[in-house]
Design brief:
The chain is α/β, with parallel strands linked by helices. It has helices at about 20-35, 60-70, 95-105, 120-125, 140-155, 170-180, 200-210, 240-250, 265-270, 300-320; strands at about 50-55, 75-80, 110-115, 130-135, 160-165, 190, 215-220, 230-235, 275-280. The protein has ten helices and nine strands. Helix 2 (about 60-70) packs across helix 10. The structure holds phosphoric acid mono(formamide)ester.
Length: about 325
Amino acid sequence: MAPNHPFGKDLLSAADLSAPDLIDIMARSRRMAQSDGQGGGAASNSRKIVANLFFQRSTRTKLGFEVAALRLGHRSIDAYDPERNRVGSSNGDNFPDHIRTIAQLADLLVIRHSEELKCHEVARLAPVPVINGGNGSDEHPTQALIDLFCMLEMKGSMDKLSLAISCDSRARYAYSLLLLLKHMPPKRVTYCVDPETHFSEKTQLALDGLAALGTKVSIVHDIEECLDHDVLNIQTQDLTSKVKSTLESGDLPSYVEKDPFVLTADKILKSRSDTIILNPLPRQGELDASCDALPNARYFEQVKLSSYVRMAVLERMLAGIPWTGSAAFSSA
Ligand code: CP
């Protein structure tokens, strides 16, 4: 981290949060939810500017931060617009100068980029706080906070909870969630992945860490084995097409989800499951529309709850309260 940058100013990884930080964000999110997002209005003389730098497509994260800023009485601006900004053009600003410029105009930056290290570069360049809104296939810490908040709102506590996660082992939200769970370990975590999967070293370490805390950790290869859990957090098993699409800026190439990883209403009804279904969205082929009418389907409620979590994160960071987790002290 550059000199004079206070430790803990940024939220780049779920590991930036300590257990007290996590408890604080969940409590702030609860307060926001209780007032349906009306409880955080800033005094007009303390309005702040949140700058969104989304170099990858986003609906929920980008609009979520815009809505969160507005509900807190702040403002947000689009700070990456390749049609209108000078960044990247032949007579324009290079990336570092663009960030240095925006950081002088705004009070907080949110960045999504396909390159894992870009958010760390931005955090070093910017004297103001930076939030990672998704960096390649590395992390998506605010989505993980949202998922955790949903589970707490819907089930009350984590210690007796069984959680199944069905997704590509490189899913960034899932890795961030594993990092958060070490502060609130569930009773059981089941990872549903393709049999060919080799977990990355960091994911294996996170799973081993949970097991060491007493969580029963299992690996399965069929979504139907997840339907006796309290919560199933599901996403596509294939991120290859998504990554390729990002690089080529085109639409998703076709990918047919393998049947063992496709959740349908028939599978839920056949097993008489009351498992809560979450999904960070957008869905690909993993979550059939037939599920939407079932009481298990809570993924659009998850979107509603997301705005309270993003309000909580902005409220804390704009107040200058540092994160005190391990990564907050190690991003040299
Ligand atoms: N869940 C999520 O990150 O969605 P977006 O890609 O639309 O932001």
